[in-house]
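Hello forum,

I keep getting stuck at the same step: I have a sequence, I want structure tokens, and every attempt I make locally crashes halfway through. Rather than fight my setup again tonight, could one of you with a working pipeline run this one for me? It's a single chain of 93 residues.
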Amino acid sequence: MQPALTTPAPVPAFNPIPLPPDSLDRDPEWALPPAAVDGCRWCSDPAEVHGTQWHPAVGFHGWEEPTAEQRQARRTARSRRAAAARHAQEVAA
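Reply #2:
Ran it on my machine without issues. Output:
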């Protein structure tokens, strides 16, 4: 006689840890290190440590030069991030 088949128990859904509403960490951009201005066009890793990487948009790729628009957007994001960090320190003081 064979044992009865059972259904596996359901896997609980992923529940992220709730953050306070005034936390800068609520924005996923803050959870990542800033992109290198001259980093790869696809994954933003610097050329000197790039090697062959995987990215969903292009698959395996070597380092590729970013576009002028990407460089400008990365510069803007870095300066906004730095300004927000300075502001957060001033408010906390």
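The first strand starts at residue 53 and ends at 55. If your local run keeps crashing, start a new thread with the error log.
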